[in-house]
Amino acid sequence: MNDKAEDASAAASASGEPERLSDAELIQAVAAGERWVTRQLYDRLYATVDHTLRRVLHGRYDELDDLVQVSFEQIIRSLAAGRLCDPSKLSPWAASIASHVAVDALRRRVREQSLFSSSESDVEQRHDAWRGGVERRMEARLDVARIQGVLSRMNPDQVHALLLHDVLGYEVAEIAAMVRVPVPAAQSRLRRARLELLRRTNRADGGGE
Amino acid sequence: VNDRELEQLARSALDPLARSPLRVASPAEAEQRFARLGGPLEEVIAEAGRQSRVDRRRLPPPRAVWALAAAALVALGIGLGVLGKRWLPPSNGESVRVLQGRMLGVTSDMSAVGVVATPADRGARLLDGQGVELAIAKASRLDLSALRSARRVVLLQGSANFDVPHQREDHTFLVVTRDLDVVVHGTRFRVELLPSSTCVQVSRGLVEVQRKNGERHFLAPGASWGCRAEGGEPVAGGGTLAAPPLPAVTAPRGEPTRALGKREPAPSADAATTARRADKTAGATLETESALAEQVRLLAEGLAAEQKGDDAAARAALRSLIDKYPESSFATEARGLLRRLSDRQTRLSP
User: Fold this and answer.
1) Theoretical Cys-Cys bridge with B202: which of A116, B8, B28, B189, CB 3.0 to 4.6 Å?
2) Greater model confidence, A182 or A17
3) Half-sphere exposure for B124 (CA within 13 Å, toward CB)
4) Using an 8 Å Cβ cutoff, are B271 and B249 in contact?
5) How far apart are CA B126 and CA B206, in angstroms?
6) Using CB atoms within 10 A of its CB, is residue B309 exposed (0-12), middle (13-18) or buried (19+)?
């Protein structure tokens, strides 16, 4: 840990109010196992993690607490392992991890549902049932559920690129840095993901998925 | 579809996720969540820190270290295998590396005697730890026992070529024969022991020859001493210069001025001052080196022209030396030579 992080640690023990660390110092403190940076890390990244999870899961807040915790645990372990090369990208990095966690949660949910469903179009059938009797405002939720169903069946890496770019608004270069691939590779992955998404949504619209 | 259309279609499909309004966690909600997660996350951080320290200790050497190690092995292989060099164990404080040929005929234990002898049919090439390179001719003997302690080599028999790096001010490399001491100031030269004299031939730099009777001469590049003697006095050839009265010479390559003679106290101001000043500035080396080289060249040209009887050329070279380096000890020598030329002309004129 660098001098400033050590100074902040001393100040924290003396006054109970640690100095605000830069992203780089925060990362170093996490890697050094400094418990007192937990609060700063949480404050710095909570909004990003929470927003990413909510955006991907969309209204499925019942397991949000667990997913926030899982996201933070993965962030901490990644930082301690030195997987974040550029400290200035801490926030996008956290969003990327939260996005992964959210996609995993979606896929897990679909797998669990398929245990009780004889058909892959179970979600769609339920949507059809809902459309008959529920309020119009629920239709948006159904659309969300449908696209979540499609995404949960796609290649996770492609879904990740798709969510980061087309849903969360990150640039291709940023995504390339997050997933540690060259920019052309990230661009190619995004294109394949879009094609796959359209193929699956067209099939779903035609009743196939 | 092209990329733009594809993006539009994908964004449209993802619209429900990307555009629909989201509920944002309130600060109170965030605080409550931290109250639940803070403790477990602290533990995760502590554990991750411990794991990180363990991982760092277990890390293999970085690729660069492996690359350097591989390069060193390759270099060692090339050095030892391909070029056929080999090392002799250090003895008598001296490490001798054989460059070419073979190291043969060490009379006995080198650490005790320090004499290297080559057989009748093969020479040897040696390099000591301080950059002195010796090419010993066949059927020669050299005593190297004082090479490190006194920077002195004694030629006992035969001949050897010497390539000596430029010496520090307080260092002198000396080749001793039965009748001469060859004082080296950083040069390449050959010393051969003839039946009645010692032949010294200089191919680069400046060599001082000191006879046992105290007589001293400087040998410029191309000059020789004692090589064509058939009994009697040694014969000087090429650009041999008698020792000047104030034998101060600027050592080559920016070395500080060194007084070569012990008879005269102070070196002349010109070369010495120039050298000291030049040492302090960039490009000093070239300046100092060229000054010495030019002085030697001009004097050698004057001598050569005089020996050929070309008095006009001799005068031109000597005057050029005096004009350019009026306080140099070489200039003193040049003035003496000019006087001799004038006397000769006076004697010859009707």
Assistant:
1) B189
2) A182
3) 23
4) yes
5) 22
6) exposed
Query: ipTM exceeding 0.90?
Result: no
CB contact under 8 A, A81 and B38: no
Looking at the predicted structure, is the pLDDT value of residue B131 above 80?
no
- Chain B residues near any Cβ of chain A (below 8 Å): 3, 6-7, 9-11, 13-18, 20, 22-25, 30, 33-34, 36-38, 40-42, 44-53, 55
Which of the residue ranges A83-97, A137-151, B189-203 has the most confident prediction, judged by mean pLDDT? Answer: A83-97
Predicted TM-score of the model (pTM):
0.44
Please tell me the predicted confidence (pLDDT) of residue B42: 92
The larger pLDDT score, comparing residue A127 to residue B262, is at A127
Chain B partners of A163 at a C-beta cutoff of 8 Å?
17
Q: Which of B17, B22, B37 to mutate to test the interface with A (most CBs of A within 10 A)?
A: B17
Q: How far apart are CA B57 and CA A92, in angstroms?
A: 30
Least CB-CB distance to A35: which of B9, B10, B42? B42
Q: How far is A111 from chain B (nearest CA, A)?
A: 20
Q: Are A51 and B22 within 8 A, CB to CB?
A: yes
Query: Distance (Å, rounded) from C-alpha B139 to C-alpha B159?
Result: 8
Rounded Cα distance between B174 and B151, Å, is 6
The position carrying tokens 């008959």 is A132
Q: Is the pLDDT of residue B243 over 50?
A: no
* Residue B147, both tokens: 């090479």
> Nearest residue on chain B to A77, judged by CA atoms?
B48
pLDDT digits (tens, 9 = 90+) for A105-142: 888 877 766 554 444 455 555 555 545 555 555 676 77
Least confident segment among B36-40, B164-168, B192-196: B164-168
Q: Which of residues 122-141 of A touch B (CB under 8 A)?
A: 140
| CB within 8 Å: A69 and B40 | yes
Q: Which of B143, B94, B98 is nearest to B116 (CA)?
A: B143
**Which of A34, A31, A27, A45 is CA-nearest to residue A6?**
A34
Q: Give the span between the Cα atoms of A204 and A196, in whole angstroms.
A: 12
| CA–CA gap between residue B285 and residue A68 (Å, rounded) | 70
Whole-angstrom distance, CA of residue A101 vs CA of residue B96: 68
User: A4-25, pLDDT tens digit by residue?
Assistant: 455 555 555 545 556 788 899 9
Q: For residues B322 and B205, what is the distance between their CA atoms, to the nearest angstrom?
A: 21
Region of residue A146 (phi > 0: left; psi between -120 and 50: alpha; otherwise: beta):
alpha
